[in-house]
Amino acid sequence: MSAKKEIQNLNNRIDKYKHKLAAAIERRDQSIIHQFEREMAKLEKQVAQLKHKESYDLNKERKELSDKPFSRPITKQEQADMGQLKRRVKGLVVVHPLTKLGKALRVDEVTGFADKEF
């Protein structure tokens, strides 16, 4: 399961526990209240760990791409025939500015990163 789906599932479980906790508070059932608070704390810790790992991986990938010796914006014509460009330039990584990686790299247009000039 991807990290994004796992985070979403954990957030859904936290939300469900919040609703059950509210009902337990109304009933003044202390044992159930403590149980849900412990479960929610455990799940929130897992979500925080997953988000940290996700940001760590993104920064690692960003660093690898920024260390590549050559990068330049991809023209509209090259974007139209991306398959030919990728066959011509081995190891080419294309980053779109609206993706997480593109925002982390602060690119303004579709940019290609490669080990050799293209």
Describe the structure.
By secondary structure, the protein is mainly α. It is rod-shaped, with a radius of gyration of 22 Å. The model has no long low-confidence stretch (mean pLDDT 93). The protein contains five helices and three strands, in the order ααβααβαβ. The chain has a three-stranded antiparallel β-sheet with strand order 1-3-2, with no helix packed on it. The chain has helices at 3-27, 30-66, 76-80, 82-88, 100-105; strands at residues 70-73, 93-95, 111-114. Residues 54-70 have a biased composition (Basic and acidic residues). Residues 7-53 form a coiled coil. Keywords: Coiled coil.
Radius of gyration: 22 Å
Q: Give me the secondary-structure category.
A: mainly alpha
Number of strands: 3
The dominant shape is: rod-shaped
Strand content: 5-15%
Number of helices: 5
Quaternary structure classification: single chain
Tell me the helix content. 55-70%
User: Could you list the spans in which at least 5 consecutive residues all have pLDDT below 50?
Assistant: none
Largest sheet: 3 strands, antiparallel
Number of domains: 2
Mean pLDDT: 93
In spatial order, strands of the major sheet run 1-3-2
- State the order of secondary-structure elements, H for helix, E for strand: HHEHHEHE
Distance between the amino and carboxyl termini: 36 Å
Biased composition (Basic and acidic residues): 54-70
Keywords: Coiled coil
Coiled coil: 7-53
Protein name: Ribosome-associated protein
